[in-house]
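ARCHIVE CARD
CATEGORY: sequence design from structure
SOURCE FIELD: tokenized fold
FIELD CONTENT:
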């Protein structure tokens, strides 16, 4: 049952509503103000947006463009700002792609299709994506898949081989490993795990 709370009896609800609307109103006014800027003023204001984005972490040109446009600036202004940032080396999609692929692969074991999808969402070009993915060594990928599968199998407890197989295949597939790598890693882990249990 849904209860209706009267704002007169609950003044905190009205304060929350006003706070939310005021944030939205401020953002709308800011976008209008930015959209009205022209020439150097627009470039400088949009550049500040980009630099604030870069303060927290590296960004792709696609991410920066979206952030600048979201603040009310035109795509043309965003592109001009990004061009200038690229010229001074603050933005480099190829380097960004390589760093992201390295971090995702080493820290979470992502590869293949999963990385392609993430890189595309960040607005990276096909060429930058392919060059970055080429840095993952096939042997390293196979070893990573095995390590992930082994760690996952150890956390499952006493489940049937069929259940373990399904869960391991699903986990590695979601991380972007190819069917052949998945099959090899899972088969090896289950065989090693069964042998270890038999020896106990």
């Amino acid at each position: 049952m849904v209860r209706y709370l009267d704002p007169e009896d609950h003044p905190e609800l009205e304060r929350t509503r006003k706070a939310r609307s005021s944030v939205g109103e401020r953002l709308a006014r800011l976008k209008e103000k930015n959209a009205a800027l022209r020439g150097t003023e627009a470039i400088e204001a949009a550049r500040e947006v980009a630099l604030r984005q870069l303060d927290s972490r590296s960004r792709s040109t696609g991410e920066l463009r979206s952030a600048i446009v979201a603040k009310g600036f035109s795509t043309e202004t965003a592109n001009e700002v990004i061009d200038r940032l690229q010229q001074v080396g603050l933005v480099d999609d190829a380097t960004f792609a390589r760093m992201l692929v390295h971090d995702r692969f080493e820290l979470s074991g992502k590869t293949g299709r999963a990385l392609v999808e993430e890189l595309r969402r960040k607005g990276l070009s096909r060429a930058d994506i392919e060059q970055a993915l080429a840095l993952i060594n096939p042997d390293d990928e196979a070893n990573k898949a095995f390590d992930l599968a082994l760690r996952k199998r150890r956390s499952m407890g006493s489940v049937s081989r069929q259940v373990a197989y399904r869960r391991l295949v699903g986990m590695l597939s979601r991380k972007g490993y190819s069917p052949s790598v998945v099959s090899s890693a899972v088969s090896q882990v289950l065989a090693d795990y069964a042998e270890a249990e038999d020896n106990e």
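CARD ANNOTATION: Residues 11-36 form the longest helix (26 residues). The radius of gyration is 25 Å.
SHELF: design records, drawer C
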